[in-house]
Design a protein that fits this description.
signal; globular; GMP Synthetase, Chain A, domain 3; 2 domains; 32% helix; single chain
Length: 431
């Protein structure tokens, strides 16, 4: 009897394993379109006409590597998106009073046929589609009527927001909310703000890595190495908006055959308020404890520039509340090295007075730059991207209860002091 029970249990387990083994959703790999990059712009009624112009067709031919002898068809449609020659609907209809679009969404996914033995040398490495829509992620359902792929967001690497879009807080909220709610989208997807449009950014085909989504993702992974780049994953941006109503999103500058990531966009209450350039971003990362390796190249000794590379950065914050006046102190412990310079005088960098001079001058430079960034955030952008309010709420909850009702004005009154302590450890001097 016992053997019979064991045999029955084994048979049941075999049937269950046989039933549930295989592709989890019964969709083959080659039948999927793995979306690597998503671009979201604010819809412009003149947008479609712009991208049918002769100038843009020439730009598209360069970026998509279209052979010179191949002519790109110029399809003209009526307001309903119907080609008058073939009578077929080839484009989404133009907006009307009854149908006014909010977004222009760009979708990019790689061509998996390029990995097969039957791929052709002149075959495109990626596919890029642009559609106007009122629902950012719903664009997938629209495109699946036009292409023979099941689009999937599970491998989404980057989302690029257009410059016009981030000026509209209502649209930014909609985009972030839809990205955060979708169960397929990874929370570590990197966000970017384009200096122009998201479409132009994703339409660029970089020489090093033609698949734009992978190119942007791999650059952002180096943010801990390069101080001029900051990684801004989806989850972090949303948490920053929740905690301080402000966020920093990495900036991308599109070109013809290159993309440059440097600096960041500052947003407050889901609205773009200004940029941080590369050097300002370095200071911001130092204050936030995110700049492990970065280059400071503004120190000059006589006619010689002394490049300083940080190797370790420790940021400790201290809060003081005296007679209702709040003071936040940033103690920066910075270790680093100097390299690639020659002194004609024969000084040894690691010996005084040269070592003391370099350390003291670097401390002055960092303190000056930090004060400039703090004043920019307090008085021009009025954006607490440093998380000062969140820090006060944790350390001095009773003080925060008094300040939070009118934090925009109180933030300007908070005294922020930066105290850098630079330690020079190694030298690359040639004598």
């Amino acid at each position: 009897m016992r053997r019979l029970k064991i045999s029955g249990l084994a048979l049941m387990l075999f049937i269950i394993a046989l039933t549930f083994t295989g592709c989890w959703d019964r969709i083959e790999i080659e039948d999927r379109g793995y979306i690597l990059a998503l671009g979201v712009d604010k819809y412009d009624p003149s947008d479609l006409n712009k991208y049918e112009s002769k100038e843009y067709i020439e730009l598209e031919r360069k970026t998509e590597k279209i052979p010179p002898d191949q002519k790109k068809p110029e399809i003209r449609t009526d307001k309903k998106g119907i080609d008058p020659k073939t009578k077929r609907k080839v484009k989404p209809p133009l907006p009307t009073k009854e149908n006014q679009y909010k977004f222009s969404v760009t979708v990019l996914f790689p061509n998996l046929r390029m990995m097969s033995k039957t791929s052709k040398a002149d075959e495109q490495m990626r596919f890029l589609f642009v559609r106007p829509t009122n629902n950012v992620l719903g664009i997938r359902n629209y495109l699946e009527r036009d292409i023979n792929k099941r689009l999937y967001y599970g491998y989404l690497k980057v989302v690029v927001l257009g410059r016009d879009l981030v000026a509209d807080p209502g649209l930014v909220k909609e985009v972030l909310d839809s990205l955060n709610r979708d169960k397929d989208i990874p929370q570590n997807t990197f966000l970017y703000v384009s200096e122009t449009t998201a479409r132009d950014t994703l339409n660029t085909m970089p020489l090093v890595q033609p698949v734009t989504g992978i190119h942007l993702f791999e650059i952002s992974k180096n943010a801990t190495v390069y101080g001029r780049i900051i990684e801004t994953p989806l989850s972090e941006v949303i948490n920053n908006f929740i905690n301080s109503k402000c966020a920093v999103i990495s900036r991308v500058e599109p070109g013809i055959e290159t993309l440059r990531i440097a600096g960041a966009a500052v947003l407050k209450n889901y609205r773009f308020v200004g940029w941080l350039d590369e050097k300002q971003l370095i200071v911001y990362k130092l204050l936030m404890g995110k700049a492990k390796h970065t280059l400071i190249d503004e120190l000059k000794y006589k006619s010689t520039y002394v490049p300083f590379i940080t190797t370790e950065v420790q940021t400790k914050k201290k809060l003081e509340d005296k007679n209702g006046r709040i003071k936040v102190i940033y103690n920066l412990r910075i270790e680093g090295e100097v390299n690639q310079f020659v002194f004609q005088s024969g000084y040894k960098v690691l010996e005084d007075p040269m070592r003391s001079y370099i350390q003291s001058q670097l401390e002055k430079i960092i303190k000056q730059k930090a004060n400039e960034v703090v004043n920019l955030l307090k008085y021009k952008y009025d954006a607490d991207i440093l998380g000062v309010g969140n820090f006060i709420s944790k350390r001095k909850p009773e003080s925060w209860e008094r300040l939070k009702k009118n934090w925009d004005d109180e933030f300007k009154k908070v005294e922020i002091v930066v105290v850098p302590d630079v330690r020079l450890r190694r030298s690359g001097t040639i004598y």
